[in-house]
Design goal:
The chain is an alpha/beta fold and 240 residues long. It contains eleven helices and twelve strands.
């Protein structure tokens, strides 16, 4: 697997548009396209092997809002789609899996309702990614607005023995800021769990991707990249 396969383009949806936030601030938005479906198709055409779709309205409101757009994306591309944003109940997860998403990212529910999360994992083995959003060394929930008492490693250990697909580790303070990923944080969590880890937050250059790629032997499966792709800092079509 080369660098191109390692990069997972992000398609973040807010009010029907493809956007990026700056450091998780819902008021600091850049719109990159009026049609998220076309954006998703573009990344597939450029060689992406996997897409990361987020319903930002859902993340902030506590339940997915952009079902129809996600369903259109799933139908429009032939590559796997992982989805997150507002998945805080078994029913919400089931709805998205029934729509055809390949994997679901669960964050707030994993913290607030472990019993329901375990039910989801047992019903949909290998379909669940536990989202670990880290803010100043602690796990953040509810659209990154609330900090918990857990470190990322402590939180991951609760789910590491279950039949999940893996973990998504995001450094919120770097997300959308293109200041470089949290290499140490990613390394630390990858070394502490048995499942694959997807890194997220802060990628601004191809060098950043290469640094994370070096952690592949530790279990880092890939990296979600948003702004750096949308602004042409990284060009998928030029990679092997």
């Amino acid at each position: 697997m080369g660098l191109k396969d390692f990069i997972i383009p992000a398609v973040d949806i807010k009010e029907g548009k493809a956007v990026r936030l700056y450091k998780g601030d819902k008021n600091a938005i850049t719109v990159y396209g009026d049609n998220p479906v076309e954006v998703a198709k573009k990344w597939e055409e450029k060689g992406a092997k996997h897409l990361h779709v987020v319903d930002l309205d859902g993340a902030f409101e506590g339940k997915p809002k952009n079902y129809k757009i996600v369903e259109k994306i799933v139908r429009a591309v032939s590559i796997p789609v992982e989805f997150g944003g507002g998945l805080r109940s078994f029913e919400a997860v089931k709805t998205m899996i029934d729509l055809g998403v390949d994997r679901v990212v669960i964050g707030s529910m994993a913290y607030q309702n472990k019993e329901e999360t375990i039910k989801v994992i047992e019903t949909f083995p290998q379909k669940v990614i536990i989202g670990i959003d880290a803010k100043d060394g602690k796990v953040a929930i509810k659209g990154w607005l609330e900090k918990t008492e857990y470190t990322p490693e402590e939180f991951a250990s609760i789910f590491d023995n279950l039949d999940i697909w893996g973990f998504l580790y995001t450094d919120v303070n770097r997300d959308g800021a293109m200041v470089g990923p949290n290499i140490q944080g990613t390394k630390k969590i990858a070394q502490s769990v048995k499942h694959p880890v997807i890194a997220s937050g802060g990628v601004g250059t191809l060098e950043d991707v290469k640094k994370l790629y070096e952690l592949k032997p530790l279990g880092v499966y890939g990296v979600v990249v948003g702004k750096a792709l949308y602004e042409g800092k990284i060009k998928l079509e030029e990679l092997d």
